Amino acid sequence: MTTRGEKFYEGKAKILYATEDPALVVQYFKDDATAFNAQKRGTIVDKGVVNNRISTALFTYLEGKGVKTHFVRQLDDRSMLVKRLTIVPLEVTIRNITAGGMAKLLGIEEGLVLNPPVFEWHYKSDALGDPLINDDHILAMKWATAQELAHIRSESFTVNDALKAFFNQRQIDLVDFKLEFGRAGSAHQLLLGDEISPDTMRLWEHGTRRKLDKDRFRRDLGSVEEAYQEVLRRVIGEAGQPSAARR
Ligand code: TYD
Q1: Terminus of the chain with fewer CB atoms < 10 Å: N or C?
Q2: CATH class label, 88-223
């Protein structure tokens, strides 16, 4: 039995609650959506329920591929039990196709296939807009050790290979995604944390390139809820099977 205790952190999309076990916390998913460093705010109906289920499915899948994550188990519609982490103040982005920040940064079009994929470190700071940094910034600022960087990088590529294959079987291109890692327990074991959902990935339908992610909200493309539900259907449905709604 896990009882939800005191709220100790509230972010843009999630809330963290203590439990009776100091090593475990409840991660609760909200419907709130933000974009452009929280300048744009809104609600995506049932996003919390959908992202909780998608994250649960993807963490479970990745654990099966040998990736160590903070996920313990799903608790209810909007919450999962996770290991308490001290978050490393870095965001990893891996890009398989140009979009978003990279297209803007380099003045290039969206939709170019990147081979090899592009790995980026960003410093996790809302105030600074998560700036792009390199290994030397991280080592000089002692945000992580060289050993930790190597581990995060190799785990991130394992995640990319696994998720690319997973979504490919579901007729979706994994364009890019963001990961966060943290240290658990006194041994400071590095675990994949946060969430993996259409809030933190770009997903394009094969062939049509229809966007099935938060870009529908960011760019006012409409049918935001439908896109999240479509991803959920494909994630929990059988690989290779078209979802019921599209049959
Ligand atoms: P990126 O193109 O760097 O930024 P933006 O979303 O502003 O265009 O985003 C790359 C991927 O990482 C994309 O799938 C969204 C995700 N992401 C987050 O989940 N959180 C963030 O704070 C940022 C900057 C990106």
Answers
A1: N
A2: alpha beta
